[in-house]
Amino acid sequence: MYYLVLLLAGCLSLPCWASLTQLTKPELALMQSLYQQQDRALSGTELNKHLLENQFLLATARQLNPELLKRQSSVGFDNDYHVRRMMVTLLIHQFPALKSVPKVQLEAPFDAAALSGLLGLYPADGDYQPEQLSHWAQIKLLDTPKVTLAQLLTSQSMQNRFRLHQGDIGLLTHQLIEWRYYADLAAAATPLLAQQGLTLTRLNALATGELLRPPMLAYLGIKAQLHGERSPYLEALRANIPGSEIQRYYQRHRDDFRYQSQLSALAVTFDTMKEAKQFHKQLGKRGPLPALKAAKRRNEFATDEKAALHAITREHTQRWLAQLAFSSKPGKATSPVRTPQGRWAVVYAEQPQYAYYPKDSETVRYRALESLTTQHAAAAYQKRFKHWQQQHGVKL
């Protein structure tokens, strides 16, 4: 298939420098200890696979989803911000003595009015112009580490960026203190790491891999994406599933496409919930026809006023009540339900009849594609991961 050709071509183009491909015993021991503290029980083999899989996902992100390497959401903090926070946790966990590293109190290089003047109005679309970023990159906020106004601003969440445009000097100062603190912590940790055969660079790669694991698994279709969204990668897989495969899926799973096509049902509406509850009680005790007579009501599904139950389909003219009937449990009346018109409805249905969605219906196509896309994504993921292992001599 076309998408598999693209898949293999993509795998062959993964750069060798994209990720860590071998982990040292000190790195594994550190991460094992950290996960145990977080109540994440992984065996040594599971841990090795988990961390190397993270690096595979990081390499795949560089190839397929490079925007994700900067930040996961346009309204959130950038990845460097999150990685620094993860690294603080990791370093202090490994070296408790680092808790003594102080947070140096800093002052903002200018006041609120000057900050607002430098930034101007927050852009309506949230995007900055290249000229703005170039100008702000010339404004240095810290020497150690070197931090410019552009760096600090673009690292923040949308909410924080808006606050900075309003001249929030307290927020600016807090972020500078945190940036300086991380630099001091990293400097103090470097010789301690060296004693254990560890480096900040490799730990940073491990932290980045862990950070990007969830969004990349979602992007590749291994985990569900928010709001049922599909990445361009998944859309491409989905678009290349042939109709013949959908038909084979239908034949294998035909029972999944059976649906209630007709019911014998009644629906009664009332002005008040009290009346509806009384009818519901009588319906349960005496059955449909006696309950209707006692309430002096008629079945709103029926044209014959004497009929207790009436055969309906989902296309009945009383669409809202019909959908309520088809969503109810056969043989059991619904509790009083508020209708869109502000009345109270009680619906009862029994004797369901079943049919099958046609093999060429949109329902079949949609459900089949949902399942087949997941299957194709899982197969493609395993091919990618296996090729990455072979390419880099990774043994799990």
UniProtKB/TrEMBL annotation:
Keyword Isomerase part of the UniProt annotation: yes
Sorted UniProt keywords: Isomerase
Secreted in keyword set: no
Classification via Gene3D superfamilies: 3.10.50.40, Porin chaperone SurA, peptide-binding domain
InterPro entries: PPIase_dom_sf, PPIase_PpiC
GO molecular function, one term: isomerase activity
PpiC domain residues: 244-356
The protein's name: Peptidyl-prolyl cis-trans isomerase
The organism of origin for this protein: Pseudoalteromonas viridis
Highest classification ranks of the organism: Bacteria, Pseudomonadati, Pseudomonadota, Gammaproteobacteria, Alteromonadales
